[in-house]
Request: fold
Amino acid sequence: MGSETSAGPPGAPSTEPGRITRQMSPADRGRVWKWLPGLYELRHYRRSWLRNDLTAGLVLTAVLVPVGMGYAEAAGLPAIYGLYATIVPLIVYAVFGPSRILVLGPDSSLAAIIFAVIVPLAAGDPERTVALAGMLAIFTGVLCILAGVARLGFITELLSKPIRYGYMNGIALIVLIGQLPKLFGFSVEGNGLLVEAAAFIQGVLTGMTNPATLIIGVATLLFILATRRFTRFPGVLVAVVGATVVTGALDLAGRAGVSVLGVLPQGLPSFTIPWIQLQDIGPLLVGAITIAVVSFADTSVLSRSLAARSGTYVDPNQEMIGLGAANMATGFFQGFSISSSSSRTPVAESAGSKSQLTGVTGALAIALLLVFVPGLLKNLPDSALAAVVITSAIGLFEIADLRRIYRIQQWEFWLSMACFLGVAILGPIPGILLAIIIALLEFVWDGWRPHYAVLGRAEGVKGYHDITRYPDARLIPGLVLFRGDAPLFFANAEQFHERVHLAINASPSPVRWFVVAAEPITSVDVTAADMLTELDDELGQARIELVFAEMKDPVKDKLRRFGLFERFGDSHFFPTIGQVVNVYVETSGVEWVDWEEREKSA
Reply:
């Protein structure tokens, strides 16, 4: 480990004056460190992080154990395999994963998919169920790695800040509502936020609350919230230990019916090749594709959101590789498909995690518990764990910056709200997809109905400007300068055509040259190219020259492929609007004196 003054991991903010971020050197980027970001981070580890990572890892352990066991049972596997699927991925991701505090493991969004794939194929055979789950994880891992190597991580570019805020707020609400029954000492049936909320309210009204459980949970919750301002004090760990000691000393599990974690199963995972039958490959591949898409979508949003909160950068392609490596490894060590955890990651973050050493600490702690003291956490109350998760969920809510977004761009605020409601009501993945679809529709709408302007020469102002913004701008007789602020493509081609005719008809003098100020046009498709051909024919019949100014070279290249550049001729393309005006004035003989020329002559 390096000194305390050493810089952080790749892309992390630097504390050195005059620097913004720390990136891999070109030499490191081309070496093995590119593929092993966790080891690269270890080379630049700060000693000041060690205490936070170890403490956060111990706190995380208390949450990892019950959640992992619960999701294993939900996936149709014995509970112990949930711990196997927790230990191995945390260690592997710490080596291959780019995120500093992301926690991987069994996930609720995958449990139902795994169950639906392996249980019918296993036909009640426990050993076959475990083998199928392992091979499903291996297939998932291979797909994720291939996607990462193919650099398909670009899909995360669709996840704007409002979408990430909506996702995190929705996840926070789901986690919070899901933990309330445990805090009150009872359980509810049903999936989905609305169903769980209704069941919780009904449970409280019908007297299902366990008073002792609620007192333990609320006391833990208040203690954690009260000590959060003391950053160096391990409030979460102290609260969990205190709740465990009090529950055991007073025998609250036996006397008051307080639900506790209980004794853990004993034993560690071993390397095993999960043998399957040939006819299983098809269904497992279909399931693996589904799991890979769901897990990467969930992981990429959470990872990018956490990176944005900490001011770091996460390579989405390496994120795929890290996720794939973790899935492959757990498949060979009696585990099952895993993803990021939107409930356990905030626990690590709120407990002060600084790096993936937190996850490694959690994995090693579980391994030690399973081998040496499986009964150490037997008196840990479930309500205390619920309190830990609730405080973490509270920290996920993003409100302040949403107010700012509402003030400056309301449609993006409502996009965030749509994502929030979609995640909260429909679930994380459908909610994200809904928000992305809305964002893409908005983007297409902007290109479909862009701003169009006729440009004139405003007195005392450099350049040529929209005459609706500068009503006193002068128009050059016989010359129309026209600008459309969007790429030319199928959705706006016809409207562009119509606006050209309107601009010509609105001209106070007969038009000789029609100039398209093409600087905002970044692309042209086939539909738009055909429209330009038709427009050129129409203007030619009216003895109007169609001219382009400031067109980018890549757009010119497209016009060459479409055969339009040769049609118009090189003389009809000008690098600036000013040059178009000068050539037009010289060749047409119109009387025009620019204000700059007038000042020079004066």
